[in-house]
Amino acid sequence: MRTPSTVCLGLAAGISGILAVTLVASLSAAGSERAAKAMVPTFSKDVAPILYKNCTTCHRPGEIAPMSLLTYDDARPYAKAIRDEVGEGHMPPWHADAPAGTFENERGLTAEEKKTLLAWATGGAPKGNPKDLPAAPDYPEGWTIGKPDAVFEMAADYKVPADGVIQYEYFYIPTNFTEPKWVKAIEVRPGNRSVVHHVLVHYRVRPDLLRSPVLKLDPEKSKFPPSGPGVLTSPRRDDGLPSRLLATYAPGTNPQVFRPGTALRLEPGGIIQLQIHYTTTGKRATDRTKVGLVYSTEAAPREVRPGQFINTQFTIPAGAADTRVDAEVGFEQDATVWGLFPHTHVRGKKWEYVLVLPDGGRKTILAVPHYDFNWQTYYMFKEPLEVPKGARIVSSAWYDNSSGNKDNPNSRADVRWGDQTWEEMQYTGLLFSPAAAPKPLTDRKPGGGPL
């Protein structure tokens, strides 16, 4: 027979057991929570190295990105945006469809880096121990290529009106070179990115090297239509000096850094010509664009030559969502192609480049299935493209002139080649080197010469 005292003792034991189990469960849950928190990456130890390696060239004060990611206080408010942009593959911005390692300037994250950023952003974005933070990258103020050996700047600010159409402007900057210069890096820096649509940098000099022709352009497709390129408010100089393209700037374009053993060659006494296309934003603005050069110290680098090929003879019908426009360039001698630069305006949606060999063989060398006007890239081949004499590169661009294109200025209008953003272009820049070395220094005929 159980007495009241034994019943009480049994109840006490039962309650004690329940409390013990509850305590163990609580301790276990707390331990699991601490373990989970310990597993969340921290900014100082895990995230900052990834951002410094992949993101802060653009995400820092004064650069193209809208916010800085250099410090925890900079990055923490954008944890959700980092999660979304990285998770959806929008950042880092890279639009070529090719196996990893195809291009030497490829922007991208490894699977482990993506996992770390997503875990940090979804795990509360902790700061971590400041002692774990690595040293921030040392960026020369205002330049991505490092401190330039020479900087050439417009002589005065250009005043951009609040509205209206601005035709191409030309500016001329003397270099005062007394000897040839080999350039291993060149960077175009607009003074005001919001109003600069593009910049083409040319070099004008006499005497210049007589360069043997490499590129064979289609004369019909390269002919400007009667309505373009427009009346210039700052007319181009008609001084008979030969002119060569050096560099291109457009939204999202990286500075040009040439691989070891290669460089641009500039003869003494030349003039840098800037062709600048300004756009209005509804507010008055000013711009003073500059160009920075870093010189090569190598004894005899291989010369890199910039060129271009276009198709101006097209019409994109109103409302058409998938219009294809082709262009091509032939090669009159063996050459090495270092990189390609596709350019359309806001109706451009994708690109494809095919190398057609003399025997009829075809090979896709670049595909950009989701072209983005805001991130225009020079795609630099990791293994340079060796192109034999008689081969061709065919470029194909597709355009969306329908109302489904949210960036379309007017889906009810036919669209043709034109300077302005609401018009269109089919333009490709390319960097190449001929197999043969240039001839000895001599003058060229007025008006330029072969590419």
Jot down its keywords.
single chain, 451 residues, alpha+beta, six-stranded mixed sheet, 5 helices, disordered N terminus
Walk me through the structure.
The protein has helices at residues 4-39, 43-54, 72-75, 79-87, 111-122; strands at residues 150-153, 158-160, 169-174, 181-189, 196-204, 208-209, 215-217, 243-249, 256-257, 262-266, 271-278, 285-287, 290-295, 302-303, 305-310, 315-316, 323-331, 335-343, 348-356, 362-368, 379-387, 392-399, 415-416, 427-434, 441-442. The chain has 451 residues and is an alpha+beta fold. β19 and β20 (362-368) form a beta hairpin. Helices cover 16% and strands 31% of the residues.
What's the SSE blueprint?
Blueprint: H1 4-39, H2 43-54, H3 72-75, H4 79-87, H5 111-122, E1 150-153, E2 158-160, E3 169-174, E4 181-189, E5 196-204, E6 208-209, E7 215-217, E8 243-249, E9 256-257, E10 262-266, E11 271-278, E12 285-287, E13 290-295, E14 302-303, E15 305-310, E16 315-316, E17 323-331, E18 335-343, E19 348-356, E20 362-368, E21 379-387, E22 392-399, E23 415-416, E24 427-434, E25 441-442
Parallel strand pairs: 10-14
Antiparallel strand pairs: 1-13, 2-12, 3-11, 4-9, 4-10, 4-13, 5-8, 5-11, 6-25, 7-17, 15-24, 16-23, 17-22, 18-21, 18-24, 19-20, 19-22
Helix pairs in contact: 2-5, 4-5
SSE string, helices as H and strands as E: HHHHHEEEEEEEEEEEEEEEEEEEEEEEEE
Mean pLDDT: 87
Number of helices: 5
Shape: globular
End-to-end C-alpha gap: 112 Å
**What's the β-strand tally?**
25
From the helix content, strand content and strand pairing, which structural class follows? alpha+beta
Instruction: Please indicate the percent range of residues in DSSP E strands (runs of 2 or more).
Output: 25-35%
